Amino acid sequence: MDAANTSWIMTSTALVLFMTLPGLALFYGGLVRSKNVLSVLMQCFALTCLMSILWFVAGYSIAFSEGNDWFGGLSNLFMAGIQEDTLSGDIPESVFAMFQMTFAVITPALIVGGFAERMKFSAILLFSALWLLVVYAPVTHWVWGGGWLGNMGLLDFAGGTVVHITAAVAALVAAIVIGPRKGFPDKPMPPHNMTMTVMGAGMLWVGWFGFNGGSALAANGDAGMAILVTHLSASVGAFTWMVCEWIRFGKPSALGIVTGMVAGLGTITPASGFVGPAGAIIIGLCGGFICFNATIIVKQKLKIDDSLDVFPVHGIGGITGTLLAAVFSSTELGIFSGQGHAEGINGISEQFMVQLIGVAATFAFTAVASYLILKLVGMITGLRVSEEEESRGLDQTEHGETGYVL
Questions:
Q1: Which residues constitute the domain of residue 102?
Q2: Residues 203-227 pLDDT 10s
Q3: Angle between helices 121-131 and 93-115 (to 10 degrees)
Q4: Which among 60, 73, 208 has a CA at the least distance from the CA of 140?
Q5: CATH of the domain at 251
Q6: In a domain, 83, yes or no
Q7: What is the tens place of the pLDDT at every residue in 87-130?
Q8: Alpha carbon distance 115, 126 (integer Å)
Protein backbone atom coordinates (compact mmCIF):
# COMPACT_ATOMS: atom_id res chain seq x y z
CA MET A 1 0.00 0.00 0.00
CA ASP A 2 1.16 3.50 -0.88
CA ALA A 3 0.20 5.95 1.85
CA ALA A 4 0.43 9.07 -0.33
CA ASN A 5 -1.79 7.61 -3.04
CA THR A 6 -4.25 6.34 -0.46
CA SER A 7 -4.47 9.75 1.18
CA TRP A 8 -5.11 11.49 -2.13
CA ILE A 9 -7.87 9.09 -3.21
CA MET A 10 -9.54 9.36 0.20
CA THR A 11 -9.47 13.15 -0.21
CA SER A 12 -10.78 12.87 -3.77
CA THR A 13 -13.61 10.65 -2.56
CA ALA A 14 -14.75 13.36 -0.17
CA LEU A 15 -14.48 15.97 -2.95
CA VAL A 16 -16.63 13.95 -5.36
CA LEU A 17 -19.29 13.33 -2.73
CA PHE A 18 -19.18 17.08 -2.04
CA MET A 19 -20.10 17.58 -5.71
CA THR A 20 -23.48 15.91 -5.15
CA LEU A 21 -24.13 17.05 -1.59
CA PRO A 22 -24.33 19.95 -1.39
CA GLY A 23 -22.91 21.06 -4.79
CA LEU A 24 -25.30 19.60 -7.37
CA ALA A 25 -28.25 19.81 -4.98
CA LEU A 26 -27.78 23.58 -4.56
CA PHE A 27 -26.97 24.11 -8.24
CA TYR A 28 -30.15 22.34 -9.36
CA GLY A 29 -32.21 23.61 -6.43
CA GLY A 30 -31.66 27.24 -7.37
CA LEU A 31 -32.54 26.61 -11.01
CA VAL A 32 -36.09 25.35 -10.40
CA ARG A 33 -39.08 27.38 -9.23
CA SER A 34 -39.46 28.04 -5.52
CA LYS A 35 -42.35 25.57 -5.19
CA ASN A 36 -40.02 22.72 -6.23
CA VAL A 37 -36.75 23.58 -4.50
CA LEU A 38 -37.09 21.05 -1.69
CA SER A 39 -38.08 18.30 -4.11
CA VAL A 40 -34.77 18.68 -5.95
CA LEU A 41 -32.76 18.78 -2.74
CA MET A 42 -34.64 15.71 -1.51
CA GLN A 43 -34.05 13.83 -4.75
CA CYS A 44 -30.29 14.45 -4.63
CA PHE A 45 -30.13 13.46 -0.96
CA ALA A 46 -32.25 10.33 -1.35
CA LEU A 47 -30.37 9.20 -4.46
CA THR A 48 -27.09 9.57 -2.60
CA CYS A 49 -28.38 7.13 -0.01
CA LEU A 50 -30.04 4.66 -2.40
CA MET A 51 -27.22 4.54 -4.96
CA SER A 52 -24.67 3.96 -2.19
CA ILE A 53 -26.68 0.98 -0.90
CA LEU A 54 -27.09 -0.50 -4.38
CA TRP A 55 -23.40 0.01 -5.15
CA PHE A 56 -22.65 -2.03 -2.03
CA VAL A 57 -25.18 -4.74 -2.90
CA ALA A 58 -24.36 -5.33 -6.57
CA GLY A 59 -23.16 -2.24 -8.47
CA TYR A 60 -19.49 -2.53 -7.56
CA SER A 61 -19.41 -6.22 -8.41
CA ILE A 62 -21.10 -5.72 -11.79
CA ALA A 63 -18.68 -2.92 -12.66
CA PHE A 64 -15.34 -4.16 -11.36
CA SER A 65 -15.41 -7.89 -10.60
CA GLU A 66 -13.76 -10.15 -13.14
CA GLY A 67 -16.32 -11.14 -15.75
CA ASN A 68 -16.57 -10.95 -19.52
CA ASP A 69 -16.36 -8.10 -22.03
CA TRP A 70 -19.90 -6.95 -21.25
CA PHE A 71 -20.65 -7.65 -17.62
CA GLY A 72 -18.64 -8.00 -14.44
CA GLY A 73 -18.90 -11.04 -12.21
CA LEU A 74 -20.82 -11.46 -8.97
CA SER A 75 -17.91 -12.35 -6.73
CA ASN A 76 -18.06 -9.03 -4.90
CA LEU A 77 -21.80 -8.95 -4.19
CA PHE A 78 -22.34 -7.14 -0.88
CA MET A 79 -18.66 -6.18 -1.24
CA ALA A 80 -17.63 -9.70 -0.29
CA GLY A 81 -13.88 -10.13 -0.11
CA ILE A 82 -13.09 -6.48 0.63
CA GLN A 83 -11.05 -6.47 3.83
CA GLU A 84 -8.80 -3.95 5.54
CA ASP A 85 -5.73 -5.42 3.84
CA THR A 86 -7.28 -5.99 0.39
CA LEU A 87 -5.60 -3.83 -2.24
CA SER A 88 -6.65 -2.44 -5.60
CA GLY A 89 -3.32 -1.54 -7.15
CA ASP A 90 -1.46 0.17 -4.32
CA ILE A 91 -4.48 1.60 -2.48
CA PRO A 92 -6.96 -0.25 -0.24
CA GLU A 93 -9.82 -1.75 -2.25
CA SER A 94 -12.22 -0.20 0.26
CA VAL A 95 -10.95 3.25 -0.80
CA PHE A 96 -11.23 2.41 -4.50
CA ALA A 97 -14.75 1.03 -4.04
CA MET A 98 -15.81 4.12 -2.12
CA PHE A 99 -14.25 6.47 -4.68
CA GLN A 100 -16.19 4.72 -7.45
CA MET A 101 -19.31 4.79 -5.29
CA THR A 102 -19.29 8.59 -5.37
CA PHE A 103 -19.32 8.43 -9.19
CA ALA A 104 -22.27 6.03 -9.01
CA VAL A 105 -24.02 8.58 -6.77
CA ILE A 106 -23.59 11.70 -8.89
CA THR A 107 -24.43 10.11 -12.25
CA PRO A 108 -28.10 9.28 -11.50
CA ALA A 109 -28.36 12.60 -9.63
CA LEU A 110 -27.40 14.44 -12.83
CA ILE A 111 -30.40 12.87 -14.59
CA VAL A 112 -32.73 14.70 -12.17
CA GLY A 113 -32.26 17.85 -14.22
CA GLY A 114 -34.01 16.28 -17.21
CA PHE A 115 -37.34 15.68 -15.49
CA ALA A 116 -37.23 18.25 -12.68
CA GLU A 117 -40.52 19.68 -11.42
CA ARG A 118 -42.83 16.95 -12.77
CA MET A 119 -41.77 13.36 -11.96
CA LYS A 120 -43.11 11.34 -9.01
CA PHE A 121 -40.63 10.79 -6.20
CA SER A 122 -41.41 7.05 -6.12
CA ALA A 123 -40.81 6.82 -9.86
CA ILE A 124 -37.47 8.62 -9.52
CA LEU A 125 -36.26 6.15 -6.91
CA LEU A 126 -37.36 3.08 -8.87
CA PHE A 127 -36.02 4.36 -12.19
CA SER A 128 -32.66 5.35 -10.68
CA ALA A 129 -32.26 2.01 -8.92
CA LEU A 130 -32.89 0.01 -12.09
CA TRP A 131 -30.82 2.40 -14.17
CA LEU A 132 -27.75 2.08 -11.93
CA LEU A 133 -27.74 -1.71 -12.24
CA VAL A 134 -28.80 -2.01 -15.89
CA VAL A 135 -26.97 0.96 -17.45
CA TYR A 136 -24.35 2.61 -15.26
CA ALA A 137 -22.63 -0.42 -13.75
CA PRO A 138 -22.32 -2.35 -17.07
CA VAL A 139 -21.03 0.70 -18.97
CA THR A 140 -18.53 1.29 -16.18
CA HIS A 141 -17.36 -2.29 -16.68
CA TRP A 142 -17.07 -1.75 -20.44
CA VAL A 143 -14.72 1.20 -19.95
CA TRP A 144 -12.93 0.82 -16.61
CA GLY A 145 -13.60 -2.72 -15.41
CA GLY A 146 -11.87 -4.77 -18.08
CA GLY A 147 -14.67 -4.65 -20.66
CA TRP A 148 -14.66 -4.34 -24.43
CA LEU A 149 -14.33 -0.55 -24.75
CA GLY A 150 -11.40 -0.41 -22.38
CA ASN A 151 -9.73 -3.30 -24.19
CA MET A 152 -10.32 -1.50 -27.50
CA GLY A 153 -8.33 1.44 -26.14
CA LEU A 154 -11.07 4.00 -25.45
CA LEU A 155 -9.68 7.11 -23.77
CA ASP A 156 -12.05 8.10 -20.97
CA PHE A 157 -10.04 9.29 -18.02
CA ALA A 158 -12.80 10.33 -15.63
CA GLY A 159 -16.20 9.68 -17.20
CA GLY A 160 -17.02 11.32 -20.52
CA THR A 161 -18.86 8.17 -21.60
CA VAL A 162 -19.38 6.49 -18.23
CA VAL A 163 -20.84 9.53 -16.43
CA HIS A 164 -21.74 12.41 -18.74
CA ILE A 165 -23.06 10.65 -21.85
CA THR A 166 -25.02 8.03 -19.89
CA ALA A 167 -26.62 10.59 -17.57
CA ALA A 168 -27.36 13.07 -20.35
CA VAL A 169 -28.89 10.55 -22.75
CA ALA A 170 -31.07 9.18 -19.94
CA ALA A 171 -32.16 12.74 -19.08
CA LEU A 172 -33.02 13.45 -22.72
CA VAL A 173 -35.03 10.24 -23.09
CA ALA A 174 -36.83 10.94 -19.81
CA ALA A 175 -37.68 14.49 -20.88
CA ILE A 176 -39.19 13.18 -24.13
CA VAL A 177 -41.08 10.27 -22.55
CA ILE A 178 -42.50 12.26 -19.61
CA GLY A 179 -43.25 15.34 -21.69
CA PRO A 180 -42.72 19.04 -21.02
CA ARG A 181 -43.70 20.98 -17.91
CA LYS A 182 -47.07 22.65 -17.96
CA GLY A 183 -46.68 25.92 -19.87
CA PHE A 184 -43.44 25.02 -21.68
CA PRO A 185 -42.19 26.64 -23.92
CA ASP A 186 -44.50 29.66 -23.84
CA LYS A 187 -44.46 30.37 -20.10
CA PRO A 188 -41.18 31.73 -18.65
CA MET A 189 -39.72 29.49 -15.94
CA PRO A 190 -36.68 31.38 -14.64
CA PRO A 191 -34.47 30.12 -11.78
CA HIS A 192 -35.91 31.12 -8.43
CA ASN A 193 -32.59 31.59 -6.59
CA MET A 194 -29.45 32.31 -8.60
CA THR A 195 -27.47 32.90 -5.39
CA MET A 196 -28.04 29.25 -4.49
CA THR A 197 -27.10 28.14 -8.00
CA VAL A 198 -23.83 30.11 -8.04
CA MET A 199 -22.90 28.68 -4.64
CA GLY A 200 -23.57 25.16 -5.91
CA ALA A 201 -21.56 25.86 -9.06
CA GLY A 202 -18.55 26.91 -7.01
CA MET A 203 -18.77 23.67 -5.03
CA LEU A 204 -18.96 21.65 -8.23
CA TRP A 205 -15.83 23.39 -9.55
CA VAL A 206 -13.84 22.58 -6.41
CA GLY A 207 -15.18 19.04 -6.19
CA TRP A 208 -14.25 18.38 -9.83
CA PHE A 209 -10.57 18.43 -8.84
CA GLY A 210 -11.24 15.19 -6.97
CA PHE A 211 -13.40 13.88 -9.82
CA ASN A 212 -10.70 14.26 -12.47
CA GLY A 213 -7.54 14.43 -10.38
CA GLY A 214 -8.58 11.43 -8.30
CA SER A 215 -9.12 9.35 -11.42
CA ALA A 216 -5.34 9.06 -11.73
CA LEU A 217 -5.67 6.78 -8.68
CA ALA A 218 -2.32 8.12 -7.48
CA ALA A 219 -0.74 11.27 -6.11
CA ASN A 220 1.47 11.86 -9.13
CA GLY A 221 2.02 14.01 -12.21
CA ASP A 222 -1.05 12.63 -13.95
CA ALA A 223 -3.24 13.83 -11.09
CA GLY A 224 -1.52 17.22 -11.06
CA MET A 225 -1.92 17.70 -14.80
CA ALA A 226 -5.55 16.56 -14.64
CA ILE A 227 -6.30 19.24 -12.05
CA LEU A 228 -4.52 21.93 -14.06
CA VAL A 229 -6.32 21.16 -17.33
CA THR A 230 -9.63 20.81 -15.49
CA HIS A 231 -9.32 24.30 -14.05
CA LEU A 232 -8.25 25.83 -17.35
CA SER A 233 -11.09 24.22 -19.31
CA ALA A 234 -13.65 25.33 -16.72
CA SER A 235 -12.35 28.89 -16.86
CA VAL A 236 -12.37 29.06 -20.65
CA GLY A 237 -15.74 27.33 -20.93
CA ALA A 238 -17.33 29.78 -18.51
CA PHE A 239 -15.82 32.83 -20.19
CA THR A 240 -16.71 31.60 -23.68
CA TRP A 241 -20.35 31.01 -22.72
CA MET A 242 -20.51 34.44 -21.11
CA VAL A 243 -19.19 36.14 -24.26
CA CYS A 244 -21.55 34.18 -26.52
CA GLU A 245 -24.49 35.18 -24.36
CA TRP A 246 -23.31 38.80 -24.23
CA ILE A 247 -23.14 38.97 -28.02
CA ARG A 248 -26.45 37.19 -28.64
CA PHE A 249 -28.62 38.69 -25.88
CA GLY A 250 -26.83 41.93 -25.03
CA LYS A 251 -26.04 41.07 -21.39
CA PRO A 252 -23.85 38.51 -19.64
CA SER A 253 -25.67 36.57 -16.92
CA ALA A 254 -24.66 34.67 -13.81
CA LEU A 255 -26.69 31.73 -15.10
CA GLY A 256 -24.68 31.76 -18.32
CA ILE A 257 -21.24 31.88 -16.75
CA VAL A 258 -21.92 29.05 -14.29
CA THR A 259 -23.50 26.90 -17.01
CA GLY A 260 -20.45 27.52 -19.18
CA MET A 261 -18.25 26.44 -16.30
CA VAL A 262 -20.10 23.11 -16.09
CA ALA A 263 -19.80 22.74 -19.87
CA GLY A 264 -16.06 23.28 -19.66
CA LEU A 265 -15.74 20.79 -16.83
CA GLY A 266 -17.85 18.14 -18.54
CA THR A 267 -15.94 18.53 -21.80
CA ILE A 268 -12.49 18.14 -20.25
CA THR A 269 -13.47 15.17 -18.06
CA PRO A 270 -12.76 12.32 -20.52
CA ALA A 271 -9.56 13.99 -21.77
CA SER A 272 -8.19 15.30 -18.48
CA GLY A 273 -5.54 12.61 -18.04
CA PHE A 274 -4.34 12.69 -21.64
CA VAL A 275 -4.03 16.33 -22.75
CA GLY A 276 -1.81 19.29 -21.91
CA PRO A 277 -2.69 22.83 -20.77
CA ALA A 278 -2.91 24.35 -24.27
CA GLY A 279 -5.10 21.50 -25.47
CA ALA A 280 -7.36 22.09 -22.47
CA ILE A 281 -7.84 25.70 -23.54
CA ILE A 282 -9.15 24.57 -26.93
CA ILE A 283 -11.33 21.90 -25.35
CA GLY A 284 -12.83 24.44 -22.93
CA LEU A 285 -13.43 26.87 -25.79
CA CYS A 286 -15.21 24.19 -27.82
CA GLY A 287 -17.21 23.10 -24.79
CA GLY A 288 -18.44 26.60 -24.02
CA PHE A 289 -19.31 27.47 -27.61
CA ILE A 290 -20.84 24.17 -28.72
CA CYS A 291 -22.85 23.58 -25.54
CA PHE A 292 -24.18 27.17 -25.61
CA ASN A 293 -25.61 26.61 -29.07
CA ALA A 294 -26.83 23.11 -28.16
CA THR A 295 -29.03 24.51 -25.38
CA ILE A 296 -30.70 26.83 -27.88
CA ILE A 297 -31.28 23.97 -30.33
CA VAL A 298 -32.73 21.57 -27.73
CA LYS A 299 -34.98 24.07 -25.96
CA GLN A 300 -36.00 26.53 -28.68
CA LYS A 301 -35.82 24.56 -31.93
CA LEU A 302 -36.54 20.98 -30.88
CA LYS A 303 -38.75 22.18 -27.99
CA ILE A 304 -37.61 19.38 -25.68
CA ASP A 305 -38.07 20.33 -22.03
CA ASP A 306 -34.78 19.07 -20.66
CA SER A 307 -35.49 21.26 -17.66
CA LEU A 308 -31.97 22.02 -16.47
CA ASP A 309 -30.08 21.45 -19.76
CA VAL A 310 -28.53 18.11 -18.86
CA PHE A 311 -28.15 16.84 -22.43
CA PRO A 312 -26.88 20.00 -24.17
CA VAL A 313 -24.33 20.63 -21.39
CA HIS A 314 -23.26 17.22 -20.08
CA GLY A 315 -24.15 15.13 -23.13
CA ILE A 316 -22.81 17.37 -25.88
CA GLY A 317 -19.88 18.30 -23.64
CA GLY A 318 -19.07 14.67 -22.88
CA ILE A 319 -19.28 13.71 -26.55
CA THR A 320 -17.11 16.66 -27.61
CA GLY A 321 -14.47 15.97 -24.98
CA THR A 322 -14.38 12.24 -25.70
CA LEU A 323 -13.76 12.87 -29.40
CA LEU A 324 -11.24 15.67 -28.83
CA ALA A 325 -9.24 13.42 -26.50
CA ALA A 326 -8.12 11.56 -29.63
CA VAL A 327 -6.73 14.76 -31.10
CA PHE A 328 -5.09 16.52 -28.18
CA SER A 329 -3.53 13.38 -26.70
CA SER A 330 -1.13 13.42 -29.66
CA THR A 331 2.52 14.29 -29.01
CA GLU A 332 2.96 15.94 -32.42
CA LEU A 333 0.90 19.11 -32.04
CA GLY A 334 3.59 21.38 -30.63
CA ILE A 335 2.33 23.39 -27.69
CA PHE A 336 -1.05 21.63 -28.00
CA SER A 337 0.47 18.16 -27.53
CA GLY A 338 -0.70 15.74 -24.88
CA GLN A 339 0.49 12.57 -23.22
CA GLY A 340 1.23 10.44 -26.29
CA HIS A 341 -1.80 8.19 -26.75
CA ALA A 342 -2.08 8.97 -30.47
CA GLU A 343 0.95 9.29 -32.74
CA GLY A 344 0.76 11.13 -36.08
CA ILE A 345 -2.24 11.68 -38.33
CA ASN A 346 -2.88 7.95 -38.68
CA GLY A 347 -2.71 7.49 -34.94
CA ILE A 348 -5.12 10.35 -34.34
CA SER A 349 -7.60 9.03 -36.94
CA GLU A 350 -7.44 5.50 -35.55
CA GLN A 351 -7.93 6.74 -31.99
CA PHE A 352 -10.75 9.01 -33.16
CA MET A 353 -12.60 6.00 -34.57
CA VAL A 354 -12.22 4.19 -31.25
CA GLN A 355 -13.60 7.24 -29.46
CA LEU A 356 -16.48 7.47 -31.92
CA ILE A 357 -17.37 3.82 -31.38
CA GLY A 358 -17.33 4.39 -27.62
CA VAL A 359 -19.63 7.42 -27.92
CA ALA A 360 -22.05 5.68 -30.29
CA ALA A 361 -22.24 2.46 -28.27
CA THR A 362 -22.77 4.28 -24.99
CA PHE A 363 -25.37 6.58 -26.52
CA ALA A 364 -27.36 3.79 -28.19
CA PHE A 365 -27.31 1.38 -25.25
CA THR A 366 -28.24 4.08 -22.74
CA ALA A 367 -31.07 5.42 -24.90
CA VAL A 368 -32.70 2.02 -25.45
CA ALA A 369 -32.23 0.79 -21.89
CA SER A 370 -33.41 4.07 -20.32
CA TYR A 371 -36.52 4.07 -22.52
CA LEU A 372 -37.41 0.51 -21.51
CA ILE A 373 -36.81 1.24 -17.83
CA LEU A 374 -39.00 4.34 -17.99
CA LYS A 375 -41.82 2.37 -19.63
CA LEU A 376 -41.54 -0.34 -16.96
CA VAL A 377 -41.58 2.20 -14.13
CA GLY A 378 -44.54 3.92 -15.77
CA MET A 379 -46.51 0.67 -15.63
CA ILE A 380 -45.59 0.09 -11.98
CA THR A 381 -45.89 3.51 -10.34
CA GLY A 382 -46.72 5.99 -13.10
CA LEU A 383 -44.08 8.56 -14.06
CA ARG A 384 -45.67 11.94 -13.70
CA VAL A 385 -47.56 13.81 -10.99
CA SER A 386 -51.04 15.10 -11.82
CA GLU A 387 -51.53 18.48 -13.44
CA GLU A 388 -52.94 19.87 -10.19
CA GLU A 389 -49.95 18.56 -8.19
CA GLU A 390 -47.54 20.05 -10.71
CA SER A 391 -49.28 23.43 -10.40
CA ARG A 392 -49.08 23.36 -6.59
CA GLY A 393 -45.46 22.26 -6.65
CA LEU A 394 -43.73 19.03 -5.65
CA ASP A 395 -42.55 20.38 -2.31
CA GLN A 396 -46.07 20.28 -0.91
CA THR A 397 -47.63 17.48 -2.93
CA GLU A 398 -44.75 14.98 -2.71
CA HIS A 399 -43.14 15.89 0.61
CA GLY A 400 -45.62 18.04 2.56
CA GLU A 401 -43.08 20.78 3.10
CA THR A 402 -42.29 24.29 1.95
CA GLY A 403 -38.86 25.54 0.92
CA TYR A 404 -39.35 29.05 2.25
CA VAL A 405 -41.50 30.53 5.02
CA LEU A 406 -41.21 34.30 4.59
A1: 3-77+88-380
A2: 999 999 999 999 999 999 999 999 9
A3: 140
A4: 60
A5: 1.10.3430.10
A6: no
A7: 999 999 999 999 999 999 999 999 999 999 999 999 999 999 99
A8: 14
